[in-house]
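Regression check, fe (ii) ion case 170:
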Amino acid sequence: MTQHSEFIQRDRGQHPPALTPDYKTSVLRSPRLPLWSLQNSLSEFTGPVFSREEMGQLDHDLIKNYAKTGDPIGERTIVHGRVMDENGRGVPNTLVEVWQANAGGRYRHKNDTYIAAIDPNFGGCGRMITDDTGAYAFRTIKPGAYPFRNHVNSWRPAHIHFSLSGSGFA
Ligand SMILES: [Fe+2]
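Current build output:
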């Protein structure tokens, strides 16, 4: 298959070890057995396929896409960047999904029981497709830090989670 050479194996030497016991979350989330290399088939090279037409008009606007009775609480910001491949080339048509806590540091999720209030006008999720240069941008509220049970008085600083889906699972 000719497309096979387009996918470069991940260089795991560029990443921190998956298992870092002092960072407690990594204990349950890291593999216990050596990784397997699976033979890719056509579906891994040709899918998934996403298009701009599938995006809602406000999907990339976290300030407005969940607003019910007004604007969400917090400091407004624009986040932008570029998705690039291993050779520094922009990757067009990549689905970028983001999720984050609200300004108080609370997620809209049933498992989040932090004392900060849910913001009725903030959902905390968005998505967009990169343009021809791999660029993306979205409007949002600066997320708040939240406590984290790694050790006593451990806090996660303000952050936004990203998920990227390119043109092939491989
Ligand atoms: Fe988080």
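Comparison notes: The helical segments are 25-29, 42-46. The first strand starts at residue 76 and ends at 82. No diff flagged against the previous build.
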